[in-house]
Amino acid sequence: MNAPAAAWFQHQLDERAEPDAVTYSGAGALPSAFAVTDLAAGSIAAACGAVQRLVAALGGGHRSVVVDRRLASWWFAWTLRPDGWSVPPAWDPIAGDYPTRDGWIRLHTNAPHHRRAALAVLGVTTDRETDRDVVAAAVSSWDATELERAVVDAGGCAAEMRSTEQWASHEHGGAVALEPLLHRHVGGPARRPLPPPSPARPLAGVRVLDLTRVLAGPVATRFLAALGADVVRIDPPEWDEPGVVPEVTLGKRCYRVDLRAPDGATELRDLLAGADILVHGYRPGALAHLGLTDGSRAAINPGLIDVSLSAYGSTGPWASRRGFDSLMQMSGGIAHAGMVTFGADRPTPLPVQALDHATGYLLAMAAIDGWTDRVTSGAGTIARASLARTATLLMQGPAGDPTASIAPAGPADEQPTPEETSWGPAHRLMPPATIDGVALTWPHGARALGADTGRPSWRQ
Q1: Contact criterion met (CB below 8 Å) for 160 and 148
Q2: Average confidence (pLDDT) over 340-367
Q3: Which of 359, 363, 371, 417 could pair covalently with 220 via S-S, beta carbons 3.0-4.6 A apart?
Q4: Which CATH number characterizes residue 334's domain?
Q5: Domain tally for the chain?
Q6: Would 338 be classed as within a structural domain?
Q7: What is the pLDDT of residue 80?
Q8: Is 21 exposed, middle or buried (0-12, 13-18, 19+ CB in 10 A)?
Q9: Is the residue at 285 inside a domain?
Q10: Which DSSP letter does residue 1 get?
Q11: Average pLDDT over the chain, rounded to whole?
């Protein structure tokens, strides 16, 4: 069957999509003020459409694609069922939504330095740091706009709840609405020869350098790994995101490198010089502080497919602001719309972190299309996407159904062979799409950050 709303999202995301190139199966939808299930199916379809184009460029002809809307919905949530172990909580104890003097604000405190910044602004210290009641009392004395500004200025992450109308009239909301979903430019000529073509594993031999964090970037590189890419993820020595790592490191090699140290900087440059695709989600300007400006990356590797993500877009006054899916839902009006739709008394976000996941598949599409252009023209590609622009797409798209329902994922939806992870055995959902003649499989299970030791290098 074809799903008109899912197809609408697919064609908005994928300017190269051919009509009826993808078909949809699966019943039900996630209940939401917005068409989240259709966004899930449409964004996965867009990434699969890029695979179709790559396979054709490799001489494999046209391959049919079927996207399961139900499985796509659950791939936007959690795909792993641990066997005999458990995943740590996804959120820091004080992260969440708090009423202010004049509205609501969300504090994002999963990273220790973001947590310290928020607590310092609120004047909450020592043994009270995990006491939500103490934090709530401190927040309640602030106006939302002032607290948002103070936390951001202190290097933390926070977002006031705005309505869709307030976001549309906001200076930054207006700037984001004028941006394309993908900023895409042609790069320089490649130096590295192409690996042998393999339509069944279309990214076999392709080297992907993963400099991303939760959650959109890792979703993108997880999909690239499923197509045969050699994905090397680099994290700093102190970084961890235990609540999501088992979900997103599937098929990747994971190293820790101190990029501030001379040896670490050299290792990164060596990896970059040999990479085919770079996916990075550092805050705008952060790589430049490590000596890797746009120009220097192009000089090190002229034919690089350079794909990046930002939270709030690349134009407007908040272009350099730190942000995450949950914050964008507050800033852009999604949480407010959910509150109104469901008649709730507090911010009501989407049922899944759909902005992260949809943007992840958009990044994957950009990387795969970039590789197709590399195969056909020998040139690299530069592509940029943002959570904020994906949020605009969702809000402008078909309405959701707050009364909808969807069957939960269960053992019958899981892959037949258990996955061996760094934490123990687990069961992973079947892929949400099938591509005729293309194997969506990963070379190994999810790994802990830093599970691979020694000097990171590319497979020969």
Answers
A1: yes
A2: 98
A3: 363
A4: 3.30.1540
A5: 1
A6: yes
A7: 97
A8: buried
A9: no
A10: -
A11: 95
